[in-house]
Amino acid sequence: MSATENAAPLLVLKKITAILDAFSLARPEMSLAEIRAETGLPHSTVQRLVTNLVHEGMLDRRGDHFRIGLRMTHWAAPARQGLDFLELLTPVIRRLRDELGETVCIFRESRGSRVCIAVAETRRVLRRAVEVGDIMPLHAGSAGRVLLAWNTDLAEKVYGSGLQSMTDRTITDAANLDAAVAKTRADGFAITTGERVSGASGLSAPIFGPQAELYGALTVMGPTMRMPYDVCASWIEPVIAAAAEGTRLIGGSLPSEEMPIS
Question: Do β-strands 113-120 and 135-136 pair in parallel, antiparallel, or remain unpaired?
Answer without folding.
Answer: antiparallel
